[in-house]
């Protein structure tokens, strides 16, 4: 729905001012009038306008004075001058003041309304562009890999290393660990970022349709093929094709995928001639593909083709220290969507979240926090009572059992951070307290993914 334009009409001649104002009101514009430049400026100080229609010559100041002040008070406004005395010098002066158009008196009403309509369409387009940019930014924000744990630092580092190549990548990890987010990050950091990122879940489409979805088909190639269809390999041309849950792909189709990756060409269903493709393939799975290869479920040659680089996404229980920052980002996201100004989690609620094993990983964490925010009605903080019953019965002093390396890293990270805080960020002093050389401390900081802002001096 279009927003109604607001228009300020400035003219010292009352009949002309009121007549023009009424014409514009009849077109459903919001109109305010002013009898001279000073009154117009006073009005602009109180409220901005989309369009200013000002007479050029008035007893107490000119339309140029109004335009200059409008540029200062409401730079988004558009000013048009009405005059019967147009000359080159006055036009130049007005344009320098920000006037976009001259309207000769007596006014051609139809011409004026067309100009205003064009301005309205331009404003609507600008608002749409602003909205879409905000949506894109929100999308990009929600598609970030969040966390400062050593495992997430390693994931981001590997993404930076592989993004610029066109080699195939296999992303592995449990459901809900962010495999598609990682794939999008790779695409966004690649030279193909301006091209399309196309995703398909290989386990969600019936076998008889998956081939057509990937490679396309020709009209009449099977019942229901009433027209040619472009496959996703062609749709993603020049960009990235993300094959999620590739371990679910039927074995017969694995042969055709292997050929596409090896030959860089596809054959649509019902076609005789192959089509060349230029697309980067990123695959993902929550299965153990090596075990599937051994059992014959997944082709060994395809496994090696897609697994040029493997990116392992850590489970949430392996990076519990990321839960506070993950929670803050989830709360920020849903505060806007739900219209609830919730600031964060209580300490007790956070301890419960960090004492859970998270079999559903980040997806489950987001679900739990969204539910808590919906049910929260009396506080700007999520409390234990807002969490599902299973969390209320958790012992916050007992976290999930970690393997030995994870437990050692978690303790080391926490201990080093405390030492740095106690030393005010002075790394030399912290190294002495920890019984380490400065170079050893730096190595530990890098290994454990600890970021600091202060120098060692």
Summarize the structure.
This protein has 457 residues and is α/β, with parallel strands linked by helices.
Description:
The chain contains 19 helices and 18 strands. The protein is an alpha/beta fold and 457 residues long. It has 4 domains: 6-129, Rossmann fold, CATH 3.40.50.2300; 150-313, Rossmann fold (3-Layer(aba) Sandwich), CATH 3.40.50; 317-392, Helicase, Ruva Protein, domain 3 (Orthogonal Bundle), CATH 1.10.8; 404-448, Arc Repressor Mutant, subunit A. The strands form 6 sheets. It has a 5-stranded parallel sheet with strand order 2-1-3-6-7, with helices on both faces. Strand 13 and strand 14 (275-276) form a beta hairpin. The model has no long low-confidence stretch (mean pLDDT 85).
State the total count of DSSP E strands: 18
CATH architecture label name of the largest domain: 3-Layer(aba) Sandwich
How many angstroms does the end-to-end distance come to? 59 Å
What is the C-alpha radius of gyration, as a whole number of Å? 32 Å
The main β sheet shows up as: 5 strands, parallel
Low-confidence stretches: none
Count up the helices. Answer: 19
Summed over residues and divided by their number, the pLDDT gives a mean of 85
Strand content: 5-15%
Write down the CATH class of the largest domain.
Alpha Beta
What secondary-structure arrangement, pairings included, does this model have?
Elements: E1 6-10, H1 14-26, E2 30-34, H2 37-46, E3 51-55, E4 57-58, E5 61-62, H3 63-73, E6 78-83, H4 88-96, E7 99-104, H5 109-142, H6 150-163, E8 169-172, H7 179-188, E9 197-201, H8 207-215, E10 216-217, E11 229-230, H9 232-235, E12 240-244, H10 251-263, E13 265-266, E14 275-276, E15 280-285, H11 289-295, H12 300-306, E16 309-312, H13 323-338, E17 344-345, H14 347-353, H15 361-375, E18 381-382, H16 389-392, H17 404-422, H18 427-434, H19 438-448
Parallel strand pairs: 1-2, 1-3, 3-6, 6-7, 8-15, 8-16, 9-12, 12-15, 17-18
Antiparallel strand pairs: 4-5, 10-11, 13-14
């Amino acid at each position: 729905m279009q927003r109604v334009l607001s228009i300020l009409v400035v003219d010292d001649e009352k009949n002309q001012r009121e007549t023009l104002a009424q014409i514009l009101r009849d077109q459903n514009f919001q109109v305010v009038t002013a009898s001279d430049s000073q009154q117009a400026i006073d009005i602009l100080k109180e409220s901005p306008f989309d369009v200013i229609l000002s007479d050029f010559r008035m007893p107490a100041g000119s339309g140029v004075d109004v335009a200059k002040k409008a540029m200062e008070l409401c730079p988004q406004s558009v000013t048009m001058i009405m005059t019967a005395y147009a000359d080159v010098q006055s036009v130049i002066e007005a344009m320098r003041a920000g006037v976009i158009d001259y309207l000769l008196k007596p006014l051609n009403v139809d011409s004026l309304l067309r100009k205003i309509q064009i301005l309205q369409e331009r404003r609507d387009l600008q608002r749409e562009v602003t909205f879409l940019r905000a949506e894109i930014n929100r999308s990009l924000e929600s598609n970030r890999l969040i966390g400062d744990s050593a495992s997430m630092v390693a994931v981001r580092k590997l993404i930076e290393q592989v993004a610029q190549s066109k080699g195939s990548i296999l992303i592995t990890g449990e459901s809900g660990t962010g495999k598609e987010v990682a794939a999008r990050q790779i695409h966004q950091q690649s030279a193909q970022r301006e091209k399309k990122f196309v995703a398909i879940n290989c386990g969600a489409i019936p076998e008889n349709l998956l081939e057509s979805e990937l490679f396309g088909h020709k009209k009449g190639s099977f019942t229901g093929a009433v027209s040619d269809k472009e496959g996703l390999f062609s749709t993603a041309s020049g960009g990235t094709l993300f094959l999620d849950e590739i371990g679910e792909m039927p074995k017969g189709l694995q042969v055709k995928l292997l050929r596409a990756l090896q030959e860089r060409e596809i054959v649509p269903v019902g076609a005789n001639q192959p089509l060349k493709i230029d697309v980067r393939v990123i695959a993902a799975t929550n299965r153990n593909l090596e075990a599937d290869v051994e059992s014959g479920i997944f082709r060994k040659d395809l496994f090696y083709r897609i697994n040029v680089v493997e990116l392992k996404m850590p489970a949430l229980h392996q990076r519990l220290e990321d839960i506070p920052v993950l929670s803050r980002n989830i709360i920020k996201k849903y505060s806007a969507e739900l219209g609830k100004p919730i600031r964060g989690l209580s300490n007790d609620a956070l301890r419960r979240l960090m004492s859970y094993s998270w079999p559903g990983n980040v997806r489950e964490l987001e679900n739990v926090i969204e539910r808590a925010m919906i049910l929260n009605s009396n506080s700007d903080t999520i409390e234990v009572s807002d969490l599902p019953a299973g969390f209320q019965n958790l012992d916050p002093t007992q976290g999930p059992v970690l393997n030995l390396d994870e437990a050692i890293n978690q303790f080391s990270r926490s201990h080093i951070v405390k030492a740095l805080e106690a030393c005010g960020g002075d790394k030399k002093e912290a190294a002495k307290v920890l019984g380490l050389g400065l170079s050893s401390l730096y190595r530990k900081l890098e290994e454990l993914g600890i970021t600091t802002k202060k120098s060692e001096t």
